[in-house]
Fold:
Amino acid sequence: MAYGIWGGVSGAAAAIGPVLGGVLTDGLGWRWIFLVNLPVSVAALVLCKVALRPDGPRRSGRFDIAGTVSFTVAAAALTCALIRANEVGWSSPRTWGLLLLSAVALVAFGQIERRSPYAMLDLSLLRRRSFAGILIASLLVNFAAFAVLVYTSIWLQALLGLTPLRAGLTALPVGVIALVASAVAGGRLHGRSPRVIIGTGMLLIGVGSLLGAVLVGPGSGWPALVPGYAVVGLGVGLVMPMLASSGMAAVPADRGGMAAGTLNTARQLGFAVGVAVLGTVVASRAGSVLGDQAAGRAVAAGQAHGPAFLGAAAAGLDAGFLVAGGVGLIGAVAVFALVRHAGPDKNTTDVGQDAAGADQRAAGADADSIDAGPTGITPARGPGRPRPGTATV
Structure:
């Protein structure tokens, strides 16, 4: 239930954000959509200090500065390259220079993490199939579900004439349905296979985005978005609660925090990359319809107004929805292919019990067998007696 609430709030926040952004833009001006993060961040820090307590003895260690810097450079350069490519083109030396910088920084990050005794990411976790599949889903879920909201909001305001608040309200079906579905999934689907739940959720997100591509046309209004948003919200409600719980259970207990942080980072990076990629897609398709790429970029940026641009804007949005839908389907395939299936049985354990079991195995506890639970942890060897402390995901 706790993970269900967490997932629902996460999914709802991403969809409700445009509504609050609309309120701030209408009432105080667009700069406040950035300034509002300052008091929210301060409040979050105070709550962490007051409410959170250590869950174990403090361990010595150092902050992985080199790893943090190299990964930040890689992610920032990649995102910037995708954004700049929309302005200066893919053949520009600036675009390729940023892509090269991102690749070099990513390689450096891998080398640093491989050698550092205080690595912020244990690269061996990526060899665990279930964790790798869940990580791919985390990277793609925000791309597939939320990145296109940026451009539907621009379409609603710049071309259909809605206020920022009314444009934000159109995204409410995603948040409300995600919140309800997460609560139901957390309470009713606890103990079920994450492979089925996450895979189905990603499939629904992909289908919902594809539905948007089918329904949005030159003469469409905001109601054309609602059916696709509803399906996307249902998918988000299934995916979000399971990402954290199954991701943490798919790794040893002492790597649970590392896994959770990695999944969160992947979700945010996927959203940033998704917005950049879809901006290029929307602008390129709109430019093709208009026969002018500069005009296409103006459509994607919300700088084009009037009925003459409605067809191009709808074509651009359709292309964005198609890409988002394809990303969702790719995420579903990755989950079904990589995450181990383990249905519930009388020996099913929850995440906390899996973590405790991981501690015992790490200490070398000998067990006759390790039953596969909903998280997909299975014995490292066949039906015989497993080696103490050995498990694969």
User: Anything to note?
Assistant: The two ends are 24 Å apart (CA to CA). The CA atoms of residues 285 and 291 lie 10 Å apart. The chain has two domains: 1-30+130-363+372-379, 64-117. Strands lie at 378-379, 391-392.
